[in-house]
């Protein structure tokens, strides 16, 4: 009975759209969206390819406070073009992070929250999207010198491609059971390496390798949380209160390079093999 009451008391974070996810995290009455849909700043390239654009290009950027701490919260809408990033959406994210850097230089301790639901670069915008993601990565590295950059990967779209690198650059990374994180998506791996290497339709296997529980157990993400708005909010607050980590994960590249060099590639790795590779012992 207690478990049922706990389940019923939870409010799903994943079921919300990007804008509602940002609103539910920020303090009441502090949500202020930058370049909202009424600004009509959208991709000029999708129309030329007979693809219906979205007025915010699938990216929501808002300033506000989280328990009175100044933050910029950025969410990618996973249902629009698979959360892919093009020139406009990428520029919105990079620009917001760069403004947060300027805030800190002016004495305003603005942290950043990234809600990532993305397959990476938008193929229809190719190099423009890649350049935007590179700017996002540079802005994360610049901002994390001052304040934490906290990323959340909650929904089943996951976080792949160049934005998975951006996620790895963040100060802290929060994931749910439904979230996934990987450089290449399952379909890309299957296409390039074959079905025997990676069956993209084998959902239990996919999540056992790149899902939130596995990524946290392997030390590639920091917190494994339920799909619950308040739990996610509290975990973000915990990391904002902790401040900067002693060592950012991406700065510890020598550790990870050494681990990767020890991986046996002759056979497909099992979930416990992945954990052992990074942590030195099975979970």
UniProtKB/TrEMBL annotation:
What domain of life?
A: Bacteria
Q: Which UniProt keywords apply?
A: Metal-binding, Transferase
Plastid is among the record's keywords: no
Annotated ranges, domain CoA carboxyltransferase N-terminal: 1-194
Q: Which GO terms describe its biological process?
A: carbohydrate metabolic process; fatty acid biosynthetic process; malonyl-CoA biosynthetic process
PROSITE patterns in the record: COA_CT_NTER (PS50980)
Per its record, how is this protein called by name?
Biotin-independent malonate decarboxylase subunit beta
Q: Cross-referenced InterPro entries, in alphabetical order? A: AcCoA_carboxyl_beta, ClpP/crotonase-like_dom_sf, COA_CT_N, Malonate_beta
The terms under GO molecular function for this entry are: acetyl-CoA carboxylase activity; carboxy-lyase activity; metal ion binding; transferase activity
């Amino acid at each position: 009975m207690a478990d049922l009451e706990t389940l019923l008391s939870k409010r799903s974070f994943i079921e919300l759209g990007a804008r509602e996810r940002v609103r539910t995290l920020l303090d009441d009455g502090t949500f202020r969206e930058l370049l909202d849909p009424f600004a009509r700043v959208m991709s000029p390239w999708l129309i030329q390819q007979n693809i219906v654009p979205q007025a915010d290009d699938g990216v929501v950027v808002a300033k506000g406070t989280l328990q009175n701490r100044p933050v910029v919260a950025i969410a990618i809408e996973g249902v629009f073009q698979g959360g892919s990033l093009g020139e406009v959406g990428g520029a919105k994210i990079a620009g917001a992070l760069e403004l947060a850097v300027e805030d800190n230089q002016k004495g305003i301790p603005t942290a950043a929250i990234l809600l990532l639901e993305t397959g990476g670069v938008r193929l229809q915008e190719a190099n423009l999207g890649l350049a935007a993601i590179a700017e996002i990565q540079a802005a994360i590295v610049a901002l994390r010198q001052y304040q934490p950059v906290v990323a959340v990967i909650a929904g089943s779209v996951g976080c792949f491609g160049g934005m998975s690198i951006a996620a790895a650059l963040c100060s802290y990374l929060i994931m749910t059971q439904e979230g996934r994180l990987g450089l290449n998506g399952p379909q890309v791996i299957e296409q390039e390496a074959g079905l025997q290497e990676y069956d993209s339709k084998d959902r239990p296997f996919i999540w056992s390798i790149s899902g939130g529980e596995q990524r946290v157990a392997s030390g590639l993400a920091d917190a494994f949380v339920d799909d619950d708005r308040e739990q996610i909010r509290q975990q973000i607050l915990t990391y904002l209160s902790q401040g900067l980590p002693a060592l950012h994960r991406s700065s510890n590249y020598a550790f990870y390079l050494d681990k990767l060099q020890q991986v046996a590639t002759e056979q497909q790795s099992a979930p416990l093999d992945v954990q052992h590779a990074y942590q030195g012992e099975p979970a």
